[in-house]
Amino acid sequence: MATIPNGRSEAAMTLHIPTSEVLRGLLDEAPADCVTLGWLLEKLHKRSFGIVLLLLALIGLAPGTSPVVGLLLTIPAIQMILARASPVFPRMITSRRFSTRRLVQLIDRAVPVLRRMETVIHPRWKTPFDATTRVVGLVVFALTSVFFVPIPLSNIVPAVTIMLIALAYLEEDGVLLALSLTAAATVLFVATFTIWQSVEAVRFMTS
């Protein structure tokens, strides 16, 4: 069986198209003037959940965005738990237009980074798609609670964790997914323990 430089088999490559190539292909189909979120979700098909999670997690790294991002992340997370085919947002969100030029600029910046990451993140330890979708949705839904913890910079760790989960989900990388889910469990444990300690401290001070 033929192989390519990064060690993946030719057969594996025909079954899985890297996310960077999917995004690059969007530009060939994009309207000349503007696009909508609804158009993007339709074109991305089964990749739409992973792309949405990745983009929201990136936004969640910015200071002051935690509550909004945490709330928005619950929408695709719940729909993944319910095994929906693709995320569904309110019409007022999906119908918002933005220029194709901005889409081109975003993809031009993202593709080189994704291509470098795809040399180490690629299909391994493949798991049933529906089961993986439900598990990822459940874990992301749990992680959204951390975005509401009133601690400075508490948004960074869950945002990075969701980014890793999204990349693993997009590239069907079971190894990275297992590591990311373990990291998510650790984040949730630490957040729960921190909240419990804070509650106990307040209770002690008021007693």
If you had to describe this structure to a student in words, what would you say it looks like?
With 207 residues, the protein is an all-alpha fold. The chain has one domain. Helices cover 68% and strands 3% of the residues. The protein has helices at residues 10-15, 19-29, 37-44, 48-59, 66-81, 91-94, 100-117, 129-144, 156-171, 174-206; strands spanning 34-36, 97-99. The protein has a two-stranded antiparallel ribbon with strand order 1-2. The termini are far apart.
Primary descriptors:
207 residues, mainly alpha, 10 helices, 2 strands, 68% helix, disordered N terminus
Q: What is the overall shape?
A: globular
What's the number of helices? 10
**Fraction in helix:** 55-70%
Give the H and E element order.
HHEHHHHEHHHH
Low-confidence stretches: 1-14
What number of structural domains do the residues give? Answer: 1
Average pLDDT: 84
Describe the sheet with the most strands.
2 strands, antiparallel
Give the strand content: under 5%
Tell how many strands the DSSP assignment holds. Answer: 2
Alpha-carbon Rg, integer: 19 Å
| N-to-C span | 71 Å
Structure class? mainly alpha
Order of adjacent strands in the largest pleated sheet: 1-2
